Amino acid sequence: MAKRYFDLFEDVHVPGRWHLDEPVDQRGQKLGNGLFRRGEPAHIEGRLRIPLYFPGKALDFSLAGTSIPVVHARVAAVFAELAPDDVQLIPVEVEGQSEPYFLLNITRVVKCIDDEASDEVRYVTPEHDLPDQLGEYRSVIGMRIDSSKVGNAQVFRTWGWVAIVVSEALKEALESVSATGTKFTEVTGPSSISAEERTRDRKIRELLETATTAREAAWRTLGSLDKEVFMPIAMSGSWPGHRQLWSVIRREAGRTLLVTHGLSDPFIERLESSVGFGLELALEVDAAVKDISKGWPLLLLDRVADEVAEHEQVRESAKAGLFSMEVSGKGLPKSLVTEEGRVAVLLGVESRTLPGHFSTPYGEVKLITVKALLPSELAYLLEHGADGQAQLARRFVESGEEHLSRLRRKPVA
C-alpha cells in the first residue's frame, strides 16, 4: 500500500486565536523566516523570544511570522519521538506564556512536488526579479507529491515551496494528543476535488489576483508599499472575497498610510468580475508606525471596516459623501475616547495628496479617507448634524490637517 502524506498548516479558523510575530534573539533582532526554511540546523546564540503579533487564544501549533512552526512542549515531544532525524527543537519564550514552547526547525527538504498531478503550479521567472528563487515555485495549488521520492522522512519541507509535509503516522500521533491549531490536507493520491470544483477555484483565484494586482499598482502611486510587514490574513464572510486584508504604505515626511485591501474584491460567490463594495478605506498618521499590529491606527481602521463591510446603509452613505460614525473605544488612545467609551470618525474628508478613486480592470474604486475625531468634535457633530460634518471637514482643510489622524492636535470644534 502506498504511503500517505499530509500538508500540515495552521488552522486560521480557530476563533480568537493568537498570531505570533517573527522570533527575536537576545539582542532583540528579528531572525526572519528564511533562516528556518533552509532545511538545515540553525545555530542560535542565547534564548529566542516570540512576541505576540495579535494576542488571543494560545495554540499548540502556530506559524510565527509567515512560516516558522512554534509548538507546545507536548507537540514537540511527538516530533522528538517520531521524527528525531528530521527536526531541530529550539526552546523559545512566547510572550505571555509560562508553559514551555519550542521553535520547530524542519531540517529535511525533499524535492517531490508532482507538477502534473497538482492542480496548478507557477514558477518564479526572470520577470519577478527574484534571482535567488529563480526556477522555484511561485504558487502551488492543490499540491500533490510523488511519495516514492520521500524515503524515510516523517516530516519535511518541499523543495522550492514553503509547505510542511508529515507522514500519516505523525499526523495520527498529533491528532491523538489533540494538538490545537493543526490542520491537514492529504497530498498523495488523486485530487480530492472534482474537475468542476477545480475550474471554479481557478476562476476565483484569477479574479482575486487581478483585483490584488490592480490595487497594489494604485498603492505604489501613493508611496512605498511595505511588503515586509507581516499582516495576518483573516477570513471574513462579510468581505466580498471572504478575505480581510490590509496594506501599509510608507509616505513622505515619515507618514504611514493604512488601507483596506479587499473591500473592492469581486464577490466570489458570483464568479464574475466586479469591484465588490466599490470602495477601500484609508487612514493616515504622521508617524512611521513600526509595529503595525499593536498600534491604534490598525485597530481603529479594522473597526470602521467591519461596520462598512457588514452594513449596506453605512457603505452607501460613505460613498455618497461625508459620513460620521462611532465605534468601540476599547484599546484606543484615551485622547480619542469619549466618556461613553466610543471613538468617532469622519469619512470622506478631502485630501490634496490622496486620490478620490482609482481604476482597476473591473471598474472604478472609491478611496475613502478615515479621520479620527476628538471628543469635542463629536459633540459638535451631534449638535449640528449634517451641517456639522461639512463645517468640520472645511475646518480640517483650512487648518492643513485634512484627512490626517493625529492624537496630539488642537480640536477644530
Automatic annotation (TrEMBL):
Which superkingdom heads the taxonomic lineage of this protein's source? Bacteria
Which InterPro entries has this protein been placed in?
A: Imm11, SUFU_N
| A Pfam family | Imm11
| All copies of domain Immunity MXAN-0049 protein, residue ranges | 65-187
Protein name per UniProt: Immunity MXAN-0049 protein domain-containing protein
